[in-house]
Hints:
The structure is a single chain. Strands 2-1-3 form a three-stranded parallel beta sheet. It is globular and about 35 Å long. The chain is 42% helix and 14% strand. Helix 2 packs parallel to helix 3 (69-78). The mean pLDDT is 86. It has helices spanning 15-27, 40-48, 69-78, 80-83, and strands at residues 8-11, 34-37, 57-60.
Amino acid sequence: MNTLPVNILLVEDDEVDIENVRRALRKRKIANPFFVAHDGLEALQLLNSEAVSAPVMILLDINMPRMDGLEFLKRIREDDEHKAH
């Protein structure tokens, strides 16, 4: 049986918060592939480029530049390719 890695995508523009999440994952010994996008637009680009295959978990900041978290959620829910995940 072939299985894909269980990816985690963090969409966050604050470097301190990014490091806090990394530290928390390490502390809990969570070694899943971990990807970071600094706003919703970058997150969409990552998902559409298939650099991050179907993340099981997306940790999402709401207030970000260029595209905020709510707009990102709206786009994901409207996209047939991603809304099933």
